[in-house]
Amino acid sequence: MNSQERIKKLIELREEARKGGGLDRIEKQHKQGKYTARERIEMLLDDGSFEEYDMFVTHRTTDFGLEATKPLGDGVITGRGTIDGRVVFIFSQDFTVMGGSLSETYAQKICKIMDQALKMGTPIIGINDSGGARIQEGVRSLAGYAEIFQRNIMASGVVPQISAIFGPCAGGAVYSPALTDIVIMSQTNSYMFVTGPKVTKTVTGEDISIEDLGGADVHATKSGVAHFRADDEEEGILLIRKLLEYLPQNNLEEPTITQSTDPADRVISELNDIIPDNPNKPYNVKDIIYHIVDDEEFLEIHRHYAKNIVIGFAKFDGIPVGIVANQPNYLAGVLDIDASRKAARFVRLCDSFNVPIVTLVDVPGFLPGSAQEYGGIIIHGAKLLFAYGEATVPKITITLRKSYGGAHDVMSCKQLRGDINYAWPTAEIAVMGPKGAIEILEGKKLSTLEPAEAAKYMAEKELEYKEMFATPYIAAQYGYIDDIIEPRNTRIRIIRSLKALATKKLVNIPRKHSNIPL
Ligand code: HXC
């Protein structure tokens, strides 16, 4: 073969590899409303930036007559490219090749790019669309998964890992996405479960559809496994690109600060009237978030899960931050098991990747009751406490209204190494709310009074307590609050604080690892 013929052969082989499992299967994929593995990569990466690895890898199995079918690339497309000019490593599972099922060599391809990403300190993006372990490969496939899991674990907190689920993701295969920082599921065609509907029926008798067991709705609202439920694959891809705007390449770098056109000295008069006079009246904390951040841009994470706490990324004068805010609009913003877990994981994500945390507090306390106690609110609430206390990134806390009891401590208080703790004049920082406090303090006296007298006495005492204790001034007297600020100046004060904290240096005592209450 002369050199021209050799080049021709290379081009032909590349063409063959690009066809994956064949045109029929590509058509089937499209008919289901799904893009192919390659199309997804094209959509995600900067134009023409994709450098493919291991296009000529084939499986080595001879069982079940598989030696007759050796598709080039073996069911997963791997490589690197750029997103907004920044290098990322990526794998995209190709359902057209044996249902995207994972073989030994397929796993090796994924491990290769994960190893490179770790060496280079760049994010890892995984696009999942697979029937799971390749049945014909047996335990070698299981070993392949475990090799990937091990790398997910080693990469955790070192480089950002983002998973998109655009097809099936079943059995133990779900644990690779679960080990990553962010899971995005497309509304249609995607599902995740450890055990599918058929086995579920056999073992437990429960008759349940695939969507109800592990669809995007379920994981975005009930289990919290999915951070995002995207309307379609296009939105899922955009979310990956957007998320990377707030994250650095790795744990040794800072997130990129961009030029903002939203004035850093913007006064927001509306905020002076945003807290209702009646302390029991809810309001939407997202209105406050949208007011204070750059250009009203807030990338909310876990939007449909544990809505009593709001988390997500935003920027202040171009500086990326993570925001954690109690949501008075939902369950009065109470902390419960799901909210604690949701926020704790996010605080740790921010801390891993040097993203400062802004906390907006309006929390009446922890949700009481046996359901919460039996479910382990003690352990789950401790997660959030631990995450805040362990975090070394700049931490700015603004108490908007209620901050009561244990929840006050948990929500990034001064003693959990909060760097700057401000309160609005509407803040109520105390051990408990007026009613509960008076019932305990004045219980004996109240029991001696006639009902009408007792109600009058109670109201008087409540008012007294409210005036004296349900304010930010006592906390400010002790220096637990650095300043009481006018709500309209909140954006300015946060931006100034972030700039002052940019040089913050705080290192925890070296240890093998902490033992966060899991
Ligand atoms: C080998 C597989 C496969 C698998 C699918 N295929 N899954 N080949 N191993 N795990 C092949 C099919 O034979 C078929 O080949 C092609 O992929 C497309 O599959 P279809 O069934 O035609 O597609 P569809 O109707 O869309 O159904 C998709 C599916 C179904 C729901 C994913 O294929 C399925 O249930 N697959 C098995 C899933 C599973 O139980 N996997 C093991 C999970 S346990 P042809 O040649 O006909 O096109 C696991 C353990 C991981 O993964 C452990 C990690 C620790």
| CATH architecture field of the largest domain | Alpha-Beta Complex
Q: Which stretches are low in confidence, meaning pLDDT under 50 for 5 or more residues running? A: none
Helix content: 25-40%
Provide the structure class: alpha/beta
Biggest beta-sheet profile:
8 strands, mixed
Number of strands: 17
Q: Write down the CATH class of the largest domain.
A: Alpha Beta
Could you tell me the mean pLDDT? 96
What shape does the CA trace take? Answer: elongated
Could you describe the 3D structure shown?
With 518 residues, this protein is of the alpha/beta class. Helices cover 39% and strands 17% of the residues. The strands form three sheets. Strands 10, 11, 12, 13, 14, 15, 16 and 17 form an eight-stranded mixed β-sheet that branches. A seven-stranded mixed β-sheet has the order 1-2-3-4-5-7-9, sandwiched between helices. A two-stranded parallel ribbon has the order 6-8. The longest helix is centred in the C-terminal third of the chain and has 18 residues, at 451-468. It is elongated and about 100 Å long. The mean pLDDT is 96. It binds hexanoyl-coenzyme A (HXC). Hexanoyl-coenzyme A (HXC) is lined by residues 98-99, 101, 131-135, 142, 145, 168, 170-173.
What topology emerges from the helices and strands here?
Blueprint: H1 3-18, H2 23-31, H3 37-44, E1 51-53, E2 76-83, E3 86-93, H4 104-120, E4 124-128, H5 139-155, E5 161-165, E6 168-170, H6 175-178, E7 182-186, E8 191-193, H7 197-204, H8 210-214, H9 216-223, E9 228-230, H10 233-246, H11 285-292, E10 298-301, E11 309-316, E12 319-326, H12 337-352, E13 357-363, H13 370-374, H14 377-390, E14 395-404, H15 405-410, E15 420-423, E16 428-430, H16 434-441, H17 443-448, H18 451-468, H19 473-477, E17 483-484, H20 490-500
Parallel strand pairs: 3-4, 4-5, 5-7, 6-8, 7-9, 12-13, 13-14, 14-15, 14-16, 15-17
Antiparallel strand pairs: 1-2, 2-3, 10-11, 11-12
Helix pairs in contact: 4-5, 12-14, 16-18
The protein binds hexanoyl-coenzyme A.
